[in-house]
Amino acid sequence: MKLTLNRRPSVGGATIGELMLDGARLAYTLEDEIREQPGVPVGNWKIKAETAIPAGQYRIVFEDSPAFGPDTLTLLNVPGFSYIRIHGGNTIENTRGCLLTGLRVTDTTIVGGTSQPALALVKSRVRAALAAGQQVWIDINNPTAVA
Q1: CA 101 to CA 51: how far, in whole Å?
Q2: Counting Cβ atoms within 10 Å, is residue 108 exposed (0-12), middle (13-18) or buried (19+)?
Q3: I want to staple 21 with a disulfide (CB 3.0 to 4.6 A). Which of 4, 26, 89, 122 is the partner?
Q4: What is the pTM assigned to this prediction?
Q5: CA 94/CA 35 separation, integer angstroms
């Protein structure tokens, strides 16, 4: 299974995205600000717990997390980052460098009461794919500049 995350431009330190499955929006996401500088080592632009992960393709698995409990969605092998999770929350203060999910968003937040239902939906789709013997991948795309 392949998920696609299409990010919008960052606003006020927050980045909203649309998490797609088979061409349809599954959920919205919230991340920290995109600071990525293509061709520049991650250590030169990353601010710990305040930076969106680099665009790219990552495998998703379930792991036990001390912070978020068992069956936490985790992105593997993210350059310059570790323990990148998909979890619930509403503001960039909740991200810790991870991806938050929601069913509704503003320009900078997940609307209250929509994060956990979105997370449950994403987990159910990932769980079904893994149960069917599939690997789960996410393609994360930065917004393209408009001239």
Answers
A1: 17
A2: middle
A3: 26
A4: 0.95
A5: 18
Tokens 């939906």 belong to residue = 121
Q: What does the pLDDT profile of the chain (147 residues) look like in tens digits?
A: 999 999 999 999 999 999 999 999 999 999 999 999 999 999 999 999 999 999 999 999 999 999 999 999 999 999 999 999 999 999 999 998 999 999 999 999 999 999 999 999 999 999 999 999 999 999 999 998 544
Tokens of 27: 């959920």
Other residues' Cβ atoms within 10 Å of the Cβ of residue 65: 16
N-terminal to C-terminal alpha carbon distance within the chain = 34
Report phi then psi at 94, rounded to 5: -90, -10
